Amino acid sequence: RLEVEPTHRDDLAFWNFSGGTTGKPKGVPHMHRDGAISYESFNHILAYRDDDIVLRVPKLFFHYARDLGLLYPLRSGAAVVLFEERTTAALVFSLIAKYQPTVLLNVPTMMRAMIQTPADERSDLSCLRLCFSSGEVLAAPLHEEWVTNFGSEVVNRFGSAESGIGYLCNRPGAVRPGSSGKVTPLAEIKLVDEEGVEVPRGEPGLLLTRSDAAAQYYVREHEKSKATFLGDEWINTGDIFIQDEADYFWYIGRADEMVKVSGVWVSPLEIEKILQQSPSVRECAVLGIKDGDGLLKIQAFVALRDGAQGIAEKRDELERYCRERLAPHKIPRTFEFLDELPKTGQGKIDRRLLRERVC
């Protein structure tokens, strides 16, 4: 029997790590109370049952997987499926067939891979009562493809290593595909302009969040800590959102990834959503890249569904596809085709590595 060490709710308990999609991951210390508050918030709207079996796709060092895929279910009396292998669509289907989980914690990249798996290589997913997605934006077309293929809606959840809490979440039965959901219990949110003034509904703004689960600093990152942790527990997420009249929040993109083309701000995410709808595209990422004259140009990195054959034809096809659906200044000037886009340890597309390829 293990001895229980006396601890206080304000003692250091664990570190989260930021995703590292735009730079190296940053350590974010959290207290014991942070985990308890995060669990309480989750339990208000997405409570696990003691007969649940939870299967998570991301590795456990990702705080989304650690919390929702291990700590929360065990605290609720539920069971978890643990595995050591590299996560693939084939493995996920085999684990579902073997263990019949009732909850699946997924990420958009794996959702796309599962959808693209031939029907005769899939498992029946009717055992699932709840499907989550987090880590990246879940675009409406991908959500709709998932529902068409597997029948279950997906609850999209948005949080961060710094917040210690999922501060936006759709609710089961009230999912708006493409949105990040509504504010969760015990979290606060406001959208502000460049001067820190709150913006009206329907206008894009920088998302600030706070809760009693929020961290206070990055480890050995003083300047970045000052830019992110703003005092009074407000955290600058660096994300641009719009809040609609029904209180749903819609992700526009990272503030530091917005691209100004011909004097107009462009969200790379908008272009990615269009490209992802092409039957030829397996996955993609769009970045603003400076050319030799120092001007920002839009570049798309694309992994094709049918491999690398016919690159020139595919480039022309995707240019036409974008031209039919986007304003001229939003069309990528360059397409680079890769067998697979690089990923971080959390399964997100590694935009830093993509940028390093051309910079």
- The helix content, as a percent range, equals 25-40%
Unreliably modeled segments = none
**Backbone shape:** globular
How many helical elements?
A: 9
Give the termini distance in whole angstroms.
55 Å
Major β-sheet profile: 7 strands, mixed
Strand content: 25-35%
Q: What is the CATH-assigned architecture of the largest domain?
A: 3-Layer(aba) Sandwich
Name of the top-level CATH class of the largest domain: Alpha Beta
CATH superfamily of the largest domain: ANL, N-terminal domain
CATH topology of the largest domain: Rossmann fold
Q: What's the domain count?
A: 2
Helix-strand sequence: EEHEHEHEHEHEEEEEHEEEEHEEHEH
Major sheet: arrangement of strands: 4-3-5-6-7-8-9
Helix and strand layout, with pairings?
Elements: E1 12-17, E2 27-31, H1 32-46, E3 53-56, H2 63-75, E4 79-81, H3 89-99, E5 103-106, H4 108-115, E6 130-133, H5 140-150, E7 155-159, E8 166-169, E9 182-183, E10 188-192, E11 205-210, H6 222-228, E12 235-243, E13 249-254, E14 259-261, E15 264-266, H7 268-276, E16 281-290, E17 296-304, H8 311-323, E18 334-337, H9 351-358
Parallel strand pairs: 3-4, 3-5, 5-6, 6-7, 17-18
Antiparallel strand pairs: 1-2, 7-8, 8-9, 10-11, 11-12, 12-13, 14-15, 16-17
What is this structure, in a nutshell?
This protein has 359 residues and is an alpha/beta fold. 26% of the residues lie in helices and 26% in strands.
Walkthrough of the structure:
This protein is an alpha/beta fold and 359 residues long. It has 2 domains: 243 residues, ANL, N-terminal domain (Rossmann fold), CATH 3.40.50.12780; 101 residues, 2-Layer Sandwich (GMP Synthetase, Chain A, domain 3), CATH 3.30.300.30. 26% of the residues lie in helices and 26% in strands. It has 9 helices and 18 strands. The strands form 5 sheets. A 7-stranded mixed beta sheet has the order 4-3-5-6-7-8-9, with helices on both faces. A 4-stranded antiparallel beta sheet has the order 10-11-12-13. A 3-stranded mixed beta sheet has the order 16-17-18. Helix 2 links the parallel strand 3 and strand 4. Helix 3 crosses helix 4. The chain is globular and about 65 Å long. The termini are far apart. The mean pLDDT is 92.
